[in-house]
Every structure is written in C-alpha cells, then in structure tokens.
C-alpha cells in the first residue's frame, strides 16, 4: 500500500508548529509530505501560521491581518524561531508540501507564487472552504487539491467532487466506513487527521486509508503497520 505520512505543521508534537525548525525536523524524519497553514499579513505576505491571531503560538497578540510582515518577524514563534513566510519554507526543505489556505484571498496570493515558481508538482493545496479550493483550481491549472473537514457526513465527498478535489482530509475521530466507501466509489483519496495513537493507527489500517496526518515523526515507522 502506498501510504502517505504527513507532518502536521511540521512535527508539532516535538517542535514549535509551523516554524522552519519544525519543517526541517519533518524532512529529517523522512515524512512524505509536510502540512502547513497560510494567512495573509497586513502587507500581503503569505505568512505560515495556523490561527488567525498570533497569541497562541508566539509571544505577541492580535490578528495576523493587522500586522505587517516586519511586525510578525519581531515575534518569537517558539525556541527563538521566527514566523516564516511560505517562500522561506520552499527554500528550507525539499519535501513536498500540503498548503492549507483559509480563504479566497490566500488562494490568489498562493497562486501567484505557485505560477512564478512552477510548484504544481510539489505543492498540494487544501482548505476547509469549498470556494478557496475552487479558486486555486481555477487560477493554477493542474494543481492537486484536497478538501478538509472536521464535522461531516457523506456530503463531504459530494462537496469534494463538486470542486474537483481528488482528496478529502478528514477528522479521524468522526470517520466511518460509510464515508470511506462513498469516497472510494467517487474515486477519491482519503487522508485521516490527526493520527497520534496506536488506536487511530489501527483504525487507519482497518479503513485502508491513503495516508495519515500526524504530530509525531514516529508514525513513519509505526505507520508501516502491525495492526
């Protein structure tokens, strides 16, 4: 089975999430794909951070959208790491990336970088938002996309098909055989997140998923599966 192991915000279980340090550790661990999150700064930079505000992951406070890149650079993102921009991650690691976008504006900014650096083969774009997936697909012909969902039913498969996403990334705690079978019938790949326990690994194995997003690099070994 060609099973993908995906590093969640790098390897956020052991390093500060969404930092160059975390991404480099994910690459050294041999993970197949590195997942990261993108937001727009006040001055239009593609900033790598999960939340809309900087409070949880840095020593600052307030919304990313109200800060310039220079202001964001002044924050400590953990262990002395600075908040990176997307282009820095591209230069720091060679591992393929899964870039999660939060809205249509981020889709447009990312599309510009992807076209300029010919990233169709290296970057998969994901989002919880159907319209963002549709927009990046319109702007970057041939881009691989994924629809993410936390609370969902079989409808998530129909939504993915509607926006042309060949992959669904689904909360493992809500995943059922019915949803997986519906996805398979529609020709979709299924990735489970966040897979951090042996129990969830066994579920991934039982449902024959295509991959798992994890906080810990050890899944690269245990993910080869002894159920």
TrEMBL record:
Residues 3-224 form the GP-PDE domain. InterPro entries: GP_PDE_dom (IPR030395), PLC-like_Pdiesterase_TIM-brl (IPR017946). Gene3D superfamilies: Phosphatidylinositol (PI) phosphodiesterase (3.20.20.190). Coiled coil: none annotated. PANTHER family: GLYCEROPHOSPHODIESTER PHOSPHODIESTERASE, CYTOPLASMIC (PTHR46211:SF1), GLYCEROPHOSPHORYL DIESTER PHOSPHODIESTERASE (PTHR46211). This is Glycerophosphodiester phosphodiesterase. It comes from Streptomyces pyxinicus.
């Amino acid at each position: 089975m060609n099973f993908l192991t995906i590093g969640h915000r790098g390897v956020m279980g052991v390093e500060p999430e969404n930092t160059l340090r975390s991404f480099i550790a994910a690459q050294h661990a041999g993970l197949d794909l590195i997942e990261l999150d993108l937001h727009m700064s006040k001055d239009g930079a593609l900033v790598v951070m999960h939340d809309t505000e900087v409070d949880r992951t840095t020593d600052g406070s307030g919304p990313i959208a109200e800060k310039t890149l220079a202001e964001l650079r002044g924050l400590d993102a953990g262990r002395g790491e600075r908040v990176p921009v997307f282009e820095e991650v591209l230069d720091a690691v060679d591992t393929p990336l899964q870039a999660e976008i939060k809205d249509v504006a981020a889709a447009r900014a990312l599309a510009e970088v992807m076209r300029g650096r010919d990233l169709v083969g290296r970057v998969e774009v994901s989002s919880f938002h159907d319209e963002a997936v549709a927009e990046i697909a319109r702007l970057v012909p041939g881009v691989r996309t994924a629809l993410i969902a936390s609370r969902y039913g079989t409808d998530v498969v129909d939504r993915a098909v509607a926006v042309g996403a060949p992959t669904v990334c689904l909360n493992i705690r809500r995943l059922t055989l019915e949803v997986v079978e519906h996805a398979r019938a529609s020709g979709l790949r299924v990735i489970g997140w966040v897979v951090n326990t042996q129990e969830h690994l066994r579920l991934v194995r039982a449902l024959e998923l295509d991959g798992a997003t994890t906080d810990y690099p050890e899944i690269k070994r245990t993910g080869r599966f002894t159920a």
